[in-house]
Amino acid sequence: MIKEITAKTLLASVKQPDTWFGLKYNLNLYRGCQHQCIYCDSRSECYQIENFADILVKANAIELLDNELRRKRVKGTIGTGSMNDPYMPVEATRNLTGRALEVIAAHGFPVHILTKGTLVLRDLPTLREIQRTFAAVSFTITTSSDELGKHLEPGAPKVSERFAALEKLSAAGILTGVTMMPILPFLEDNEQNIRGIVEKAAASGAKYILAAFGVTLRDRQRAYFYHQLDENFPGLKEKYQRAFGNCYYAPAQNAKQLETLFKELCATYNLSTRMPVYQPHTTTQPQLF
Ligand code: SF4
CATH for 2-273? Predict the structure, then answer.
């Protein structure tokens, strides 16, 4: 179901310093996500989204954003993609993200986009404009395999298509990278997978890879994830239950060794393991956080 709603406010200030992307504001133009990744944390009870498959479109978002940016005194980075994917299929017709980027460009704010959507290519001209301040696009890629990706991220574009989109943005001069998280225990925590992602990211022109070797699991999110494990990988739910019980964090097997391998590979391919972030009041060159 896709339904329009009227939002009261749009930009949420980031309270703690954001060490991943250097965000100052979070922007969510939709509620719910069509990509339906089986591990998605946005299903957790604290976010109060009753049916994550229902897509709520913030119909007044563009007007609100324009008004809110007009009043902002601090030009911090606006991040989008934390609670839903700004380039999920509905965006192709609604163009909320595309129009929001135009407003952001007009106000001269920096932007970070987190996505699995190849539709981001549509907005390349606007991203080029925003880049005069700062623009970065991170593609979430947790497996190097299209086949596994189909089971884990059933509504998202194929992994190979994400790498292809990354390559196009990078070739056009946009700062791009990969968020390699989560890495799911027993499914993605192997050398071949980590090596595959790093090598493909490097070949596609990524400048950085941010990694987390494990997955967080809680309440509704865990229930959905376990249900999907039963559907797609019989017997794996029981393995998770034995290994992690009700723990919030389920680390990858051999997380330390995988992290060492990851860092070695990134050094070999000249990839940063941190994202260069926007720094106000400095030169136009993005700096490491
Ligand atoms: S794309 Fe992101 S927000 Fe959407 S379902 Fe997947 S993990 Fe959740």
Answer: 3.20.20.70
